[in-house]
Amino acid sequence: MPKILAAVQAALALITIGAVTTFAPPCQKLLTLDNGNQIPMKCHWAGQAAILVAALIIVLAVVAILAGKEHKKVQIGIIAAGIGLILVFGPLIGVCMNSEMMCHTTALWGRVLGGAIIVCGIIDLFAGREGQIPS
User: Fold this and answer.
1) How far is the C-alpha of 66 from the C-alpha of 130, rounded, in Å?
2) What angle do CA 49, 55, 59 make, to 5 degrees?
3) Which residues pair with residue 40 across a beta bridge?
4) How sure is the predictor about 134, in pLDDT bands with cuts at 50, 70 and 90?
5) Which one of 29, 50, 54, 69 has the minimum C-beta count within 10 Å?
6) Dihedral over alpha carbons 15, 21, 23, 26 (to 10 degrees)
7) How many CB atoms neighbour CB 28 within 10 A?
8) Which residue in 109, 82, 113, 80 sits closest to 95, CA to CA?
9) Mean pLDDT score of the chain, rounded to an integer?
């Protein structure tokens, strides 16, 4: 079961990357500064950070699959990364203030998938006797 849960976490992270890059991308609008320069809005940077966190989750999930009895220690890292994924779209970077912007859909995908990754990790931590939660 731990290998299945880690594979599910990797799949959820891949879906997160797909959401940010393909089917629910953040806003592509640019913010115009006082000096006339244009820069991407913060939702763009939240999406980029989410891709990096999701890639980290994929790497950790592969490590968890290969770790054998020590996989529960890796799950703690995956849970922390899942929390980070949720926080990227909230207080860490955030999304646009206008609730009608596309980035709110991206943030919803990120929060839901991050939550599912955390749930899988918690299930793995408390399931089975082999490799109990490290103290």
Assistant:
1) 15
2) 145
3) 30
4) very low
5) 69
6) 120
7) 11
8) 109
9) 88
Q: Is 127 left (phi over 0), alpha (psi -120 to 50) or beta?
A: beta
The predicted-structure confidence for 8-61, as pLDDT tens digits, reads as follows 999 999 999 999 999 888 888 888 889 988 988 888 899 999 999 999 999 999
Residue 129: what residue type?
R
Spatial distance between the Cα atoms of 100 and 126, rounded to a whole number of angstroms: 40
Q: What is the DSSP string of 49-114?
A: HHHHHHHHHHHHHHHHHHSGGGHHHHHHHHHHHHHHHHHIIIIIS---S-TTSTHHHHHHHHHHHH
Q: What is the pLDDT of residue 10?
A: 96
**Residue 99: partners with Cβ closer than 8 Å, 6 or more residues away:** none
Convert 119-131 to b/e letters by CB count within 10 Å (16 or more is b).
bbbeebbeeeeeb
Answer for the pair 11, 129: CB distance below 8 angstroms, yes or no: no
Strand pairing of 38-40 and 30-32?
A: antiparallel
Structure tokens at 102: 């596309």
Determine the residue type at 114: G
